Amino acid sequence: MLDTDKLEYQRARNMLNYTELARKVGISKTSMSKLKLGKTQPLPSTFKALCEALDCKPEDLLKEV
């Protein structure tokens, strides 16, 4: 499950705003907003694109169990 705090940390680390991140990932600003608020979870392809856009490993965005 996507950790919204980790998403925010990685976004800030890469000095991207959410509009820029959405564009790099290939999703709409509305979809990015839902992800950052924890209202939806990314599709596997979107999650992979997030990791690539943020130059991080999957575990850098996942909640710890």
Question: How would you describe this protein?
Answer:
The model has no long low-confidence stretch (mean pLDDT 97). 57% of the residues lie in helices and 0% in strands. The chain contains 4 helices and no strands. By secondary structure, the protein is mainly α. The protein starts with a helix and ends in an 11-residue tail after the last helix. The chain has a single domain (4-55), classed as lambda repressor-like DNA-binding domains (434 Repressor (Amino-terminal Domain), Orthogonal Bundle), CATH 1.10.260.40.
Gist?
The protein is an all-alpha fold and 65 residues long.
Mean pLDDT: 97
- Cα(first) to Cα(last) distance is 9 Å
Number of strands: 0
Q: What is the percentage of strand-forming residues?
A: under 5%
What level of helicity do the residues show?
Answer: 55-70%
Count of DSSP H/I helices: 4
Per CATH, the class reads: Mainly Alpha
Class by SSE composition: mainly alpha
What key attributes describe this structure?
65 residues, mainly alpha, 434 Repressor (Amino-terminal Domain), 4 helices, 0% strand
Sequence-ordered SSE layout with sheet pairings:
Layout: H1 4-13, H2 18-25, H3 29-36, H4 44-54
